[in-house]
Amino acid sequence: MRDTLPLLVKTDFPALRRARLATLQANLGYRCNQSCLHCHVAAGPARTEEMSWETMSLLLRFADRQRLSSLDLTGGAPELNPHFRRLVAAARAMALHVIDRCNLTILNEPGQGDLAGFLAANAVEVVASLPCYLEENVDRQRGDGVFESSLAGLRKLNALGYGLPDSGLNLNLVFNPVGASLAPNQQELEAAYKEQLATRYGIVFNRLLTLTNMPIKRFGSQLVSKNEFHDYMRLLKGAHRDDNLPGVMCRTLISVSWQGHVHDCDFHQMLDLPLGDRHAPIHLSALLDHEFENRPIRVADHCYGCTAGQGSSCGGALASTQPVSLEAP
């Protein structure tokens, strides 16, 4: 895999400072039942890295000390960590809002038959990857059979009330482009997703979140191999909008690796870029009482992926003014 970090470190991206911290995002490990081509984590079935319960306990202590509102769990497939359910139950007991970034197919894996029910019982928000409402597009990006398995997962969630009005069980889908392009307008694409999934498959959900593919890890390596890296960076920089800067996710979120090291965002974590203006990794245990507000945020060229066009964050688009066709993504 080709390393794109040397191409990203030198940057003219605008300086950023952190607002009040609200969300702790934690990567529970790189093991996954899928090996997606766009994955910026390079996760897969053969990966063995996973967060220990000791580090998870530290997440809860940190969230309490910092008076955070949300715990955002990622992977790999975070549900494959053997302590996932224990962590979710403990976080919910603390009244933390818990987000599970789920690939949907995990709900059908051996030993996970009751996973959907567990998520519903704990009112966990599910943010689920579904890069298109057409089978051929999903399977091209994620592998044969992934679309059908994803639909099966969605049906399980819908049957429990996820995505239904007034159920209190939020089901949000995630779209990211198949290749080196910006995502379409989120609001219009959401309308198309809702119509197509309801009409074709009887599936409902709450919101669609559109994300930009970051030029790092697997996707970045592909861009370099195809001699498309610099063209993609020109696309991101040419579409940069200053009015997206106040809403970028790193202003209210920090990212914690499976080892407990802290980064400004999930993408920085994958590039081993230390938090803020530090020159070496720092562990969450050293930051329990740290004052984050107004501290500098490290930036690099891939940050343009969060401010290009309508913007991109873990919560989807930052703006929705970009016109787009409603043709299938």
Measured on Cα atoms, how large is the radius of gyration?
19 Å
* Biggest sheet, spatial arrangement of strands: 7-6-5-4-3-2-8-9
Assign a percent range to the helix content: 25-40%
CATH hierarchy: architecture: Alpha-Beta Barrel
Any idea of the CATH class? Alpha Beta
Distance between the termini: 27 Å
CATH superfamily label: Aldolase class I
| Number of domain units | 1
Shape: globular
What features would you describe in this structure?
This protein is α/β, with parallel strands linked by helices. It has a single domain, classed as Aldolase class I (TIM Barrel, Alpha-Beta Barrel), CATH 3.20.20. 31% of the residues lie in helices and 12% in strands. It is built from 11 helices and 10 strands. The chain has an 8-stranded mixed sheet. A two-stranded antiparallel ribbon has the order 1-10. β6, α7 and β7 form a beta-alpha-beta unit. The longest helix is centred in the middle third of the chain and has 16 residues. The chain is globular and about 50 Å long. The relative contact order is 0.18. The C terminus is likely disordered.
Quick overview:
This protein has 329 residues and is α/β, with parallel strands linked by helices. The protein is 31% helix and 12% strand.
Topology:
Blueprint: H1 5-8, E1 16-17, E2 23-27, H2 53-66, E3 70-74, H3 84-93, E4 97-102, H4 115-121, E5 125-129, H5 135-142, H6 146-159, E6 171-175, H7 186-201, E7 207-210, H8 217-225, H9 229-238, E8 253-256, E9 262-263, H10 266-270, E10 296-297, H11 304-307
Parallel strand pairs: 2-3, 2-8, 3-4, 4-5, 5-6, 6-7
Antiparallel strand pairs: 1-10, 8-9
